[in-house]
């Protein structure tokens, strides 16, 4: 796909999702959809906010979607909310708009920020009690979607000098310290559940999750982004290096480049042996997300050799037919558009030896999204049809459109829409 074709497709999708009433009809009023960043209104709002910020769309569309998100019943807060649902999800969209409209949404954002700090502090207090009791964490305690890493990503942008941000970083640093579990030394992020976050007979001894969405990959990305922006806590660099050492330990050479397991089980930890077949190189789990997190870590540490290795790992994953065959959709979370967005973001920060090569893979990654020879209208229709009834951020058409913009324009986003993904 040529860059102008990707941009045409993104704008065509945005036109089909112009206003809530005409796009979602009565479903827009569903409370879960109104508050879901991944699958509902706030994620679609991000598309219109980014286009308006770039001068590629009207602000009234963004306003309409933000109004839909903030109208109706009070937003969910407390234990039932998280970075991708409820008040935090809507706050992320509003904050992205406010970046380009200084003073806009000021009162509501201040209130949401206070709520986010309160909820994060409550979660941190619960984590302290769990640590004092010598228990393992749940994924939802710390991960990027439901846990403190997600809260940290938001507050790092909005309140970088706050005590809460420092406490979140302290907590994540402590999470990298080893624990004793059933007589075995496990990393501090080892959880007693299966990867779903629920008890699972297939994981009787729990697991160590490496993913960016639900595991230590997201923690690595947040610690690295904080360090890169000068927000540091005691033991910060050592924690980054500890996570990198864990990933080094479990790196598997496919013959075409390194990959990392989605998670590690206790039997594998005991033997040091973990066989891997071809796996999807996605943002949520897989080499693309982890390679970007390691690139960010290397930049934060000033380690050019590790940065080059991470960029080469990403490049290998994005050109390996065996890995690409496991990618079966076009979505942002684990599809081709997400791979293209990560590649474009990584290329912007990459060393000269790999930057051009990363940009060179973009047309092949975008081709499944907008097949050569198809026009934008037909491609948009197909993408909206396959993502029904959810045209949202993670799996749907609005996320695909957002992911196309940086590869299409060659420029970083005009807002921090992808900060919730810990990509930048």
What class do helices, strands and sheet pairing give?
mainly alpha
List unreliable stretches of 5+ residues: none
Largest sheet: 2 strands, antiparallel
Order of helices and strands: HHHHHHHHHHEEEHHEEEHHHHHHHHH
Shape: globular
Strand order of the largest sheet: 1-2
Q: Report how far the terminal alpha carbons are from each other.
A: 24 Å
Radius of gyration: 20 Å
- The helix tally amounts to 21
Estimate the helix proportion, in percent: 55-70%
Instruction: Quote the average pLDDT.
Output: 94
The count of strands amounts to: 6
**Portion in strands:** under 5%
Structural account:
The structure is a single chain. The protein is mainly alpha-helical and 424 residues long. Helices cover 56% and strands 4% of the residues. The protein has 21 helices and six strands. The chain has helices at 3-16, 20-24, 31-35, 41-53, 59-70, 87-100, 106-132, 139-142, 148-158, 163-175, 216-228, 236-249, 266-271, 287-301, 304-319, 321-324, 336-349, 352-360, 362-366, 376-387, 397-409; strands spanning 179-181, 184-186, 207-209, 252-253, 258-259, 263-265. The strands form three sheets. The chain has a two-stranded antiparallel sheet with strand order 1-2. The protein has a two-stranded antiparallel sheet with strand order 3-6. Strands 4-5 form a two-stranded antiparallel sheet. Helix 1 (3-16) crosses helix 20 and helix 11 (216-228) packs parallel to helix 14 (287-301). The chain starts with a helix and ends in a 15-residue tail after the last helix. The mean pLDDT is 94.
């Amino acid at each position: 796909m040529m860059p102008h074709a990707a941009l045409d497709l993104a704008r065509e999708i945005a036109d089909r999702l112009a206003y809530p009433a005409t796009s979602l009809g009565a479903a827009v009023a569903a409370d879960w959809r109104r508050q879901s960043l991944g699958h509902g209104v706030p994620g679609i709002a991000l598309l219109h906010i980014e286009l308006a910020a770039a001068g590629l769309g009207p602000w009234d569309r963004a306003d309409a979607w933000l109004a839909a998100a903030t109208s109706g019943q009070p937003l969910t807060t407390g234990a039932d909310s998280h970075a991708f649902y409820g008040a935090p999800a809507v706050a992320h969209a509003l904050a992205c708009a406010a970046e380009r409209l200084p003073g806009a949404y000021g009162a509501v954002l201040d209130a949401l920020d206070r709520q986010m700090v309160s909820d994060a502090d409550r979660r941190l207090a619960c984590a302290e009690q769990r640590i004092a009791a010598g228990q393992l964490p749940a994924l939802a305690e710390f991960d990027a979607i439901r846990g403190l890493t997600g809260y940290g990503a938001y507050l790092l942008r909005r309140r970088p000098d706050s005590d809460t941000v420092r406490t979140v970083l302290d907590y994540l640093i402590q999470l990298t310290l080893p624990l004793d579990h059933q007589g075995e030394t496990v990393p501090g992020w080892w959880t007693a559940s299966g990867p779903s976050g629920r008890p699972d007979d297939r994981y009787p001894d729990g697991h160590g999750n490496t993913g960016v969405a639900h595991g230590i990959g997201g923690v690595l990305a947040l610690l690295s982004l904080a360090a890169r922006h000068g927000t540091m806590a005691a033991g910060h660099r050592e924690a980054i290096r500890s996570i990198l050492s864990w990933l080094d330990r479990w790196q598997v050479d496919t013959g075409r480049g390194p990959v990392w397991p989605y998670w590690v089980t206790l039997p594998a930890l005991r033997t040091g042996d973990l066989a891997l077949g071809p796996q999807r190189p996605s943002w949520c789990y897989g080499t693309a997300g982890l390679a970007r997190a390691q690139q960010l870590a290397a930049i934060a540490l000033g380690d050019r050799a590790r940065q080059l290795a991470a960029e080469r790992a990403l490049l290998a994953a994005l050109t390996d037919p065996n890995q690409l065959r496991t990618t079966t959709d076009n979505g942002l979370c684990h599809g081709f558009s997400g791979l293209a967005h990560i590649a474009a973001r990584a290329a912007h920060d990459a060393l000269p030896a790999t930057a051009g090569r990363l940009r060179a893979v973009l047309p092949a990654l975008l081709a499944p999204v907008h097949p050569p020879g198809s026009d934008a209208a037909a491609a948009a229709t197909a993408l909206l049809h396959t993502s029904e009834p959810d045209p949202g951020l993670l799996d749907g058409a609005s996320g695909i459109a957002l992911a196309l913009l940086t590869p299409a324009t060659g420029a970083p986003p005009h807002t921090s829409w992808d900060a919730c993904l810990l990509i930048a």
